[in-house]
Amino acid sequence: MKQFAVIGLGRFGSSVARALSGKGQQVIAIDRDEELVNDIMDNVTKAVCLDSTDEKAVKSVGLQNVDVAICGIGTNVEASILVTLLLKDLDIPVIVCKATNIAHKKVLEKIGATKVILPEKDSGERIASTLISKSDAVLDHIGLSGNSSIIEIIIPEKFVGKSLRDLDIRSGYGVNVIAIKKKVKVTRNGKECEEEKINVTPLADDIVAKGDILVVFGENDKIEALKSIQND
Fold first, then answer.
1. pTM: predicted TM-score of the whole model, two decimal places
2. Containing domain of residue 166, as a range?
3. pLDDT computed for residue 52 by the predictor
């Protein structure tokens, strides 16, 4: 028997949670909406009301111990991305996410989701059956639904050698850094070579170096303002 966590109990998430539970699996169901949590409480192993973007809250319910996590958050793209990054940081073996469109799907795959579902093509029952039987630099500019995007941006010269705390990009530019790509030297078969390393959980004290690439999420006008720094 596997342990599952379902985060986001809208139509998609609740369908998956009930289907998994109906097949005898252990399921933790999570949402910040108390009404949705109460609705599913009798159908799953455990139902919890909390903010799934809060790492301490998530760890307090043992989410780091599950075999498979399903992120059913769709319409709130930022929350979907942040939860996926958190699940990745918790080293959960299989991360399945809901996407609202192809662009959203590409982003989730790039930041570490094992499988991304477009609900209009996949029913909760079908997904539950699949999960039980088998567990198995973002694009330059990905336009998301609404007025937001994700971009990769090469570190501007004036950012080099500074920490994310010093740069304070969220406050200064109104966007979120969701990953940092770095070139690192590794030795393979006795030969030194370069490969790309992606830090999907950057910390405030992380220092950015020349050639690093920031993966940034934000509203389009804020994204354009950040891009213009390259021309300063």
1. 0.60
2. 148-231
3. 92
